[in-house]
């Protein structure tokens, strides 16, 4: 489980030293999503505001064996209204984080991305999975596998910058970023290799800052030092990246789930580029994944406040 893992445990310990994050928990009407929020509350990571149909939330708490004594509620009739109400709380400064409960991602993100009433900033919104993979010696960030379906070059620039800034908030001083494709050579036949090369040049020109980029890289030589040597790739990133940038959401989503279900990876997820952090995990994820994601949100918000960013 994520909270018992070594690397996530260190992040949990860091987050536990910071003030709890006022968090709108959006439509937590199933036991697992409710349990995750309560676990984060009991660990003093968040101060939850339950947003959704109160009777259903309380039934979920009974099923989860969780007490909601002392918890605040904002009652709504359904999930769509819960998403809108949670976003409004963030815009008003009454909460500093959102946590997805038992509703579809696109339903929550529709409210978040509304141009008039949402939580947009000047940068493109993106998502990062943070994985602890048993066969890999450090945390691995994968982006974007949940929000941007087929990002163009400008969107990928923001995806990369969001991930670098987030990695730095986690304590990775100069993140190494591998921009993935099917091959490690640039070819017009595979557009993602052109994007990878352009992103690296953008980093050279200061359009992306704070990290070290290389790409295109195939997954094997991105992640394996032995594969890098076998293919004679000279790279400051290949073999030991902190961040993997995938070509599109489909490939990223499949990569993350393969690492989780076949590779035993433990993970957490968070949305970046919004006014406040958004804990965004799959409805099939465990309560422990939501707990770990809450710790990420606490660390991100602390970094944002230190840099002067306000909700």
Mind sketching the topology for me?
Elements: H1 6-16, E1 21-26, H2 31-42, E2 46-52, H3 54-64, E3 72-75, H4 79-91, E4 97-100, H5 105-112, E5 126-132, E6 140-143, H6 153-169, E7 176-180, H7 191-204, E8 212-217, H8 219-223, H9 225-230, E9 243-245, H10 249-261, E10 266-272, E11 278-279, H11 287-306
Parallel strand pairs: 1-2, 1-4, 2-3, 4-11, 6-9, 7-8, 7-9
Antiparallel strand pairs: 5-6, 5-10, 10-11
Description:
The chain is of the alpha/beta class and 311 residues long. The protein folds into two domains: 1-120, Rossmann fold, CATH 3.40.50; 121-273, Isopropylmalate Dehydrogenase. It contains eleven helices and eleven strands. An eleven-stranded mixed beta sheet has the order 3-2-1-4-11-10-5-6-9-7-8, with helices on both faces. Helix 4 (79-91) runs parallel beside helix 5 (105-112). The longest helix is centred in the last third of the chain and has 20 residues, at 287-306. The chain is globular. The two termini are 32 Å apart.
Describe the structure using short key phrases:
Isopropylmalate Dehydrogenase; single chain; Rossmann fold; alpha/beta; 42% helix; 2 domains; 11 helices; 311 residues; eleven-stranded mixed sheet; globular
